[in-house]
Amino acid sequence: MDLVALEHRARTLAASGGRRILGIAGPPGAGKSTLADRLADALGPGRAAVVPMDGFHLAQRELVRLGRADRKGAPDTFDAAGYAALLRRLRAPDPGTVYAPAFDRALEEPVAGSIPVEPGVPLVITEGNYLLFEDGPWAAVRPLLDEVWFLAPEDTVRVPRLITRHIRHGKDPAFAAAWVSRSDEANAALIAPGRERADLVIE
Q1: Domains along the chain?
Q2: Distances from the Cα of 101 to the Cαs of 98, 114, 117, 173, in angstroms?
Q3: pTM (global) more than 0.90
Q4: pLDDT of the residue at 55
């Protein structure tokens, strides 16, 4: 399915009445944030808002306290319950603006109150690794999404792209490659079964 067809599907969802939430899932480096941003741009101002799951990363200080800093990006390094709570707010918008957190890759930290979602926006696009993950508090996420698309590019494309992204954000090339091999790919293995629960798989 090409980008034009995906844009049409997103527009149809946005026009179906009320507030709709589209999820874009997939392994690290699959292109989730790129697709989410392109869909929002295609729909135009006031028609879509992008709310990344990554805004619910635990802060580095908390990861260190919990002994999880060397596994950043694993399911238990996020506030999954907080993410689900925000999705519930977004499904039934208040008259006012709902503010969502973002993840600052330069700081490697979440930043609260970064993304305004106005009450009249018909489509929220949320993207992240664990939208279809069924363990623990993550199981509450899928029922809150109207559709979920799973991105599944070839690993020969995805892994080099992921290493390049880590380098671009300041990691040493050798460290970036080792981190992807040890951490990101372990998370990718956890995410992979979720494609069976997606409404659409994009190869």
Answers
A1: 3-154+193-202 (3.40.50.300)
A2: 10, 5, 11, 29
A3: yes
A4: 97
